[in-house]
Design goal:
heterodimer, A: alpha/beta, Rossmann fold, 8 helices, globular, B: alpha+beta, hypothetical protein PF0899 fold, three-stranded mixed β-sheet, elongated, binds guanosine-5'-diphosphate, binds magnesium ion, binds zinc ion
Amino acid sequence: MNEPRMVEVRRKVLKENDLLAHRLRDRFQSVGTRVVSLVSSPGSGKTTLLERLLTDLRREYRVAALVGDLATENDAARLARSGAPVKQITTGTVCHLDAGMVERALEGWAVEDLDYLFIENVGNLVCPSSFDLGEDLRLVLVSTTEGEDKPLKYPTIFNTADVALITKLDLAEAVGFDLELLIRNIHGVRPGMPILQVSARTGEGIEGLEHLLISNHTESKLAQVQ
Amino acid sequence: MHELSIALNIVDGVLEELDRQKSGHVEAVHLRLGRLSGVDKDALSFSYGVACEGTPLANSRLLIEDVEVAIFCPVCGVERPTRSFPVLICANCGALGERVLRGEELEITAMELVT
Ligand SMILES: Nc1nc2c(ncn2[C@@H]2O[C@H](COP(=O)(O)OP(=O)(O)O)[C@@H](O)[C@H]2O)c(=O)[nH]1
Ligand SMILES: [Mg+2]
Ligand SMILES: [Zn+2]
């Protein structure tokens, strides 16, 4: 048998997903739809927060949501109570959404009629980090009840997200939550990352978050005009 | 575990690159894997074997080169390695890095073919 010959290849492993995500991002931007995804461990409060955001933003904007889950459709049912269009993506054994799942879920939806599309990823801090979904903004949630060392254990998700949200602020005191430590850990793995603090239960901080989403949107619309 | 998805993407990618070659059987695939890629090396090696089954890549080897994290240090003004992973502290002066320059890689760099 001959000696093996080395063939140089320069190829990102997730090239196909990246290409599809770029196409989705172009499509969303060309019709002015702002796409925001949420990632966190199971139970950090993604669905609860989204229920609130959908209900509030629906008063002035056209909003919809996609929600990923391994098996159940419970989250979609909860989100649908807001009155916004919601579609469940059941991933089976796959622990993350990818760009292809988002594209298929949007078939039959008039994306151009939306101002905001929210995507709740599968509850997992590891797997979603590698997969670009074509979103404009990725929010990573970490609750006051889950330990301040999450960023050190899962640095990649903090590196691929744009904004960190500290959730369940209303429980902070009861669990002896150390805010400074969490902020230090977030900034240790992702220097300068914007951090907001919210409680979907009491509504604290929600206005600030909505303001961020809206001002970001206005900027992107301005950018399109220029 | 997303390493199986990653492994399936490696197999698809290599098969596509193989199409561009006139001939050859893949013996080994070289991969660069950043420490911040979020991919577990052992889980990936195991998944690769599974993903290759029943494909022309069956029994090929996956050779993984680890890539350590490097940051741009605003104080030193140059690329630096970090200390105390995963915190992005400059190994030279202890300042917080401005951005990650290396360590996020997840890429196929080469394949070894026999004819
Ligand atoms: N006290 C309190 N509980 C919350 C808050 N947000 C969510 N929860 C509770 O946390 C649990 C998990 O929330 P859920 O939204 O389903 O999390 P998900 O898995 O990230 O979608 C539920 O029992 C929620 O009622 C909050 O701001 N404060
Ligand atoms: Mg949920
Ligand atoms: Zn330095």
